[in-house]
Amino acid sequence: MSEVMSKLKKDYVYNLMLKGQREDGRAFDEMRAITVETNVIDKAEGSAKVQYGDTQVLVGVKLQLGTPFPDSPDVGVIITSLELNPIASPTFESGPPRENAIEMARVTDRGIRESGAIDLTKLCITKGEKVWMIFIDVHVLNDGGNILDAASLGAIAALMTAKVPAERNGVGEDFMIPVREMPVGISVVDIGGELIVDPGRNEEAVCDTKISITSNQDGSICAMQKSGEGALSEKQVLKAVTLACEKAAKVRENYLLKI
Amino acid sequence: MSKPEKFFDENGLRLDGRRVDEIRPMKIEVGVLSRADGSCYLEWGNNKVLAGVFGPRELHPRRMQRPDTAIVRYRYNMAAFSVEDRIRPGPNRRSTEISKVSREAFEPVILTHLYPSAVIDVFTEVLQADAGTRTAAINAATIALADAGIPMKGLVSACAVGKVDGKLVLDLGKDEDNYGDADLPVAMTQDGDVTLIQMDGNLTQDEFKEAMELVKVGCKQILDIQREALKSKFDQFDTEEIEEETVVEAPKSEVEIDETVEVETEVVVTEEEEVVETEEEEVVDTEEEEVVDTEEVEEEVTADDENDEEPDKNTDDEDVEEGETNE
Known about the structure:
The complex is a heterodimer of chains A (259) and B (327). Chain A has 259 residues and is an alpha+beta fold. Chain A contains 5 helices and 12 strands. In chain B, a hairpin with a 4-residue loop joins strand 8 (182-189) and strand 9 (194-197). Chain B is globular.
C-alpha cells in the first residue's frame, strides 16, 4: 500500500499466510511487543513515546489559548497533526504532509475527538472568546509498520499525562486535561482473505485493505477507517471489529490504565 | 522566564553549577533506528536530538544528480512540541538556514567523490530544545554518518561558546543563550579545521581569540565522547565475535575427545577455523579504520578568524516570529 515492494517479497508474505504463518513468527491475532513511555519531553505539556515492535512514534501535546470556532463557542479545540518524517523511512520525503499522513492524522484525531475522551467544555475560559487549544503532534521516528496504532495509543497516553499550563498564561491554576475515556485504535489487514492484526511493514505493504477501528472502554466503537484499494466482506468487517475491540481492551489494560 | 539577576555565584560557578569551561553532560546512543542506514540519539543537557542517515542512494529528481560526486542533503527540523511555545511544524527560515550551514559543516569531511550521482541524506530531528540544538544535531549527525559507514576524513564535533556578564563560557545554557551577550556556535573536524562558524552578539577580537581556544577544548571533549560511543558499539561486535569463536571451538573439543578420529580431520577443522578467524578480524579492522581509526590526530587547531554574523539570539522568540511571518 504505502511502499513499493518486490513481487517476490509479496509472494513470500502471501505464501507464509497460506501456511498460517507470519514473517516474524506471530499468530494472526498477535500484537508485537508494545512499550509506552510517558513524560519524555519536559517542554511539552504531555508526551508519550510508543513502540510497536520496530515502529517508534513520539507524541507531544501542547496547549495554547485561542478563540473557539463560531459554531461551538463554549468548547476547547483539538488540532492533531502527524508528520511522516523522512528520518522514519527511506521512502518518506520532506515537505508538507501528503494524503497518507493527512489520513493518519485525521484518523488519530477522530479517535480522540469522537470518543469524547476529553471533556472540552472544561477547556472553555470565556464563552465565544477564549478557550484552550490542544495541539497533538505525532512525530513518526521509525516506520516498522502500523504507525497508525502507535500514533493513536501515543496520543491518548500523552493526553493523559498533559497538564494545562494555566498559571503560565495567567488564567488560574494548572490542572490536568480532563480525560474521561481511553480510546485505542487497532488496525487489521486483509491478506488473501485472512485478517491479521498489527501489520508489520511488509504485511502492510502487501495487503490490499486495512481497517482501523478505535474503541472505548465499554467496547463501543468510536472511529473506523478503511483504507487501501481492496474490499472487505461484511463478515470480515464484523470479525475485524470483534478482534480490534478485544485487542484494544488488552492494550488499554496493559498500557493506559497504568499511567 | 526572565533574565536571571546574576549568571555566576560567589564561586564563579554558572546558573546550573557548571564551571565556565565545562560542557553539559552528553549521552549518545548509536544505531537506534532500524530503517535508517545509520542513526544516533543524543541528549545534551536538556536537548534531545535524533539523527538518521540514508544512503548513499539514488538521487531523485535526476536533474539534481552530479555525475562526478554525491550530494549531501541535511535537514534540521524541530518538533512542534520541542519548545515552550509550540512552533508550526515544517521548515521555516531559521531551520532552512541551519540546515544549509550544517550541511556545509559536513561536506568538507564526507568523501562524496566515491559515490557519483548519489545522495547522502542526513536528517536531524530536535525533539526537545534547550539552547544549542544546531550543535547537538551536528554531533548526533556525525555519529549517524559513521554508523551508516559513510567514508569520512574524520568526525565533526560542534560546540558553542558565548559571553555572559562579560565572561566567556562554554556551551551556553538556555538563559545564557537568551540573555547573554554573544553566541558563537562552531563545528570542527578532529584535525581542528572549522567547518561551521556562526556568531551573534558582541565579542572583541581578543575575546574572539579566547573564545576559539575555549571552543576547541569543548569540541575535543565532545570528540572523546563521540569516539567512546562509537567504540562501545564496535566493542559489542568484538564480544559477539568471541562468542562465535567459542561456538566454533565446541565441536573441535568433541572431536578431540573422540580419540579414534584421525588427526587429519582435526587439522582440517583448525585450518578452517583459522581462515574464519582471520577473515573476521580483517573485517573488524577495516571498519574500525573507517570510523574510529583516525584517532592519532594532532590536536592543533587552526582558528579561522571568521566573524560570521547571524542574528538569531533568542531561538524561541525567533521561532514564533518566523511562524507568524511565514503565514
